[in-house]
Amino acid sequence: MAITSDEDLRSLELPSETPMGQPLDWAWLRGARSEWGMKPVPGPRGLTMMDIATGSYGEIEEEPQFRSMAPRGSDIDENTPDMGYILNHKSQVWADNVIELYEEAVARQWSSTRDIPWGDLRELPSDIEHAMCQLCTVLTEIEMIATDLPAKWMWRMNHHFLEAKMFLSTQIMDEARHSDVFRKRALANGGGLLVSRAGSESLLRTILEAKTYTQASALLHLLGEGFILDIFRQGELIAPTPVEKKIFRLSMQDEARHVAYGTMHIRQAIAGDPDVEAEIHEALDHGEKVFAEFGTQPDLSSALAVLLAGGVEHIEERGFPMQSTMATKIFTSYLARCERAGLNRIDRTSLPLDLLGIDRDQFTREGVRPTKERGEDGLRH
Amino acid sequence: MAYVTELRYYQELAALMNAHPEDYEVLGEVDLNLGLVMTGQAADLRVKLQFEGLGCTEVSALEEGGEHSCDCWLEGDLEAWGEMFDDILVNGMATGRKTVNSLTLLGDRIDIRANDPLGKDLFFRFNQTVQQFLDGAAELEQSVV
């Protein structure tokens, strides 16, 4: 007899135990307290997580009833064990763009082995090769913080917020790839890894030891990754060959997703609990100081200046002015993102805005207009 | 033959992208509403490009100020745009300081703008797809200002 309806299922006589005497549970077949027959429709690009976020499956509760790994939308045992999650409120992990960001991340993965034209590397002047290797040393060191930090918190996040954990998993993959690609570049052209200074480690430790996930996210996604995003953008100016250009361009796309998550997560966190704003400010007060030390540490800034200048001989007339112009852009973007996240940092920051050429009074949500005039070469001198 | 100052030019670029989605597959799907603003001629050109999935689903003209309805927009003088397209024609793709990422980095000739920092970040998230779309100019019959 073909089973064609739920009515047929309910009328079936089914065994209550196996021939070995073990009990059988047929609730999954007739009577699960979950939605049946949703049938989401695939879009032009396939079946996305947005497509299946439908009905109760797409309802993200502010504070889920359970603290287990049971899938959201399923019929969950009342006595399901508590997994010890400590991030059980939506605003503690969620961002309104996180499902789309997950799909985007999956669609835009790349391979450092396959997609970088390593064969196009060519011998470079020694100062340029050294500077690129030093930059790659710093980058391969600091990129892994963006894997370790989410990994530290993910197992503490309620599984109800599955898509946030899935997105953070893509971030972990992205950052592993960044660490990999910069390590490869350091070695691939006959150079190698150069110096690792304490300043980098202090920054990483500050991020890793943040007291809450949201504080950590502010330090990592808004401050740290925002800075690195702009360094990757500078790849257009500092890359000596198309190989590095490709590395920086592809890495930039990844980094921008992480920043987009962080911006919206912080916004969500503040909306969910206004008291969180003070905690984030406190974290950024400290983070900006450590970050300023990191950004100006002598090895990183000298290597960047040499790359921006195209060689040590042009560092003063071109490297430093270019670096100053880029610093204005970096902190302009950071302050604008903070504002978008619901944080007014412009009136609180201890960053040297005057030195950076940023005028508090000229602040707009889009950005902060530079106060210093540029020279004919487009740079601030 | 279409000119870079004409809407039809961008429609041809979109047709090229839509005819070869496989070329964009390695970069992945896109969701971006991008404006292009070219100033400096009698009537400025404002174009809206709607990217969805692996295609460009809409190319339309924008009124003055209409770019504010886009996620973000690239704005610069026609001369700078012309130099960028010339570079694409000569090299088969934008090179050196003529990529949109390079040009917008300093932002003195062509700048990236948005009403929302997240809109601007979309340009960075989908940057290589936008560049590949513009590089399609090398395959059009001709693109002169």
How would you describe this structure to a colleague?
The complex is a heterodimer of chains A (381) and B (145). Chain A is built from 15 helices and two strands. With 381 residues, chain A is mainly α. Chain A has a domain of 219 residues: Ribonucleotide Reductase, subunit A, CATH 1.10.620. A two-stranded antiparallel ribbon of chain A has the order 1-2. The radius of gyration of chain A is 25 Å and the shape is elongated. About 2% of the residues of chain A have low confidence. With 145 residues, chain B is α+β, with helices and mostly antiparallel strands. Chain B contains six helices and five strands; from the N terminus they run H-H-E-E-E-E-H-H-E-H-H. In chain B, a hairpin with a 1-residue loop joins strand 2 and strand 3. The longest helix of chain B has 14 residues. At the A-B interface, helix 4, helix 11 and helix 14 of A face helix 4 and helix 5 of B.
Quick summary:
By secondary structure, chain A is mainly α. Chain A has helices at 6-11, 49-52, 90-93, 98-107, 126-142, 145-154, 162-188, 198-208, 213-233, 235-238, 242-272, 276-295, 298-309, 315-340, 353-356; strands at 358-363, 368-370.
The largest β sheet of chain B comes out as: 5 strands, mixed
Q: How far is it from the N-terminal to the C-terminal residue of chain A, by CA?
A: 85 Å
Low-confidence stretches of chain B: none
Helix content of chain A: 40-55%
Q: What is the tally of beta strands of chain B?
A: 5
In DSSP terms, counting alpha (H) and pi (I) runs of 4 or more, how many helices of chain A? 15
Shape label of chain A: elongated
Quaternary structure state of the chains depicted: heterodimer
Largest sheet: spatial strand order of chain A: 1-2
**Proportion of residues in extended strands of chain B:** 15-25%
Largest beta sheet of chain A, briefly? 2 strands, antiparallel
Q: What is the spatial order of strands in the main beta sheet of chain B?
A: 3-2-1-4-5
Low-confidence stretches of chain A: 368-374
Number of strands of chain A: 2
Which CATH C-level class of the domain at 144-362 in chain A is it?
A: Mainly Alpha
The third-level CATH topology of the domain at 144-362 in chain A is: Ribonucleotide Reductase, subunit A
Q: At CATH's second level, what is the architecture of the domain at 144-362 in chain A?
A: Orthogonal Bundle
